[in-house]
Design goal:
This is Transmembrane protein. The protein is mainly alpha-helical. The protein has a domain of 155 residues. The chain is 77% helix and 0% strand. The protein has 8 helices and no strands. Helix 1 runs parallel beside helix 7 and helix 2 runs antiparallel to helix 3. The protein is elongated and about 120 Å long. The termini are far apart.
């Protein structure tokens, strides 16, 4: 019983260190993104570094889990439990394949703000172009769709709703097992209990600080979208005026051409000469 409890405490302590390391690395990526966004807030894609970080870490953890499962399955097979070993490896392999597929999709999907993309498209319209009414209406409908889409994304939310506090479950479990060990007289349980308390406090602190950086990133992204929307409205108004503007002298030229055509259709008439 004592050996099993010590093994369990050691495993939970190692997992707590891994969780703290991942939370620290996530905080570093958020700090790097915040620094890049301060230099160029309009062109910095939100969440790019975080996506790249987790799309590498999560498949690595899944591969580690598969390796542990393969080792355990091999021991079961050598003990005669072949079907149990295969039943253990198959789901872990499917999980690894699914995680890698999702990571590849995340890497290929470039996070681009819809308002910034529409602003770039409108900025590419030549200054001398006269778009038709259908094009202008399409851009205006796209702006309305973007307003509805981003209105559902709150810039602020309670810290306890952040997924960045989820790793605190590991040190919390470590603390509960260490408390149980201290109550049952497991050797070294007070030391494990102290480590678990420090691990839980550090995990919660890292999660809250990371969530604060993420909240600031969401606010900066919302401000950048507001600036882009103001510029989009201004460009749409200019494009709408251009679509309704008449070409100077166009009506006179059309009337003259029709007059020439009518004169030519009369028998024996000569077309009017240009003066």
């Amino acid at each position: 019983m004592t050996d099993a409890a010590t093994t369990l405490l050691t495993a939970l302590g190692a997992l707590t260190m891994v969780a703290l390391g991942l939370q620290g690395a996530d905080l570093v990526t958020l700090v790097v993104e915040d620094s890049a966004r301060r230099r160029n807030a309009r062109d910095t894609a939100p969440g790019r570094a975080t996506r790249q970080f987790w799309s590498v870490i999560v498949p690595g953890l899944a591969a580690l889990l598969l390796a542990v499962g393969v080792d355990l399955a091999a021991r079961l097979m050598m003990g005669g439990d072949v079907l149990v070993g295969i039943g253990l490896i198959a789901p872990l392999a499917l999980v690894l394949i699914a995680v890698v597929a999702v990571a590849v999709l995340v890497q290929q999907r470039e996070p681009v703000d819809g308002f910034a993309l529409l602003e770039r498209r409108l900025a590419d319209v030549p200054p001398t172009a006269r778009p038709n009414r259908t094009e202008v209406d399409g851009w205006q409908r796209e702006l309305v769709d973007l307003d509805g889409r981003y209105a559902l994304r709150p810039a602020r939310r309670p810290a306890w709703l952040s997924w960045r506090l989820a790793p605190a479950i590991v040190p919390a479990a470590f603390l509960s097992v260490a408390g149980w060990g201290a109550g049952t007289g497991v050797p070294g349980a007070p030391v494990w209990l102290s480590i678990a308390v420090l691990g839980l406090a550090g995990s919660v602190a890292l999660g809250i600080v990371a969530d604060r950086f993420a909240a600031r990133a969401r606010l900066q992204a919302a401000r950048a979208r507001a600036m882009s929307r103001i510029e989009i409205v201004r460009m749409l108004q200019d494009l709408e005026r251009r679509s309704l503007r008449r070409v100077p002298g166009f009506g006179d030229r059309v009337a003259r051409a029709l007059a020439i055509l009518r004169e030519q259709q009369k028998p024996g008439s000569q077309p009017p000469r240009d003066r």
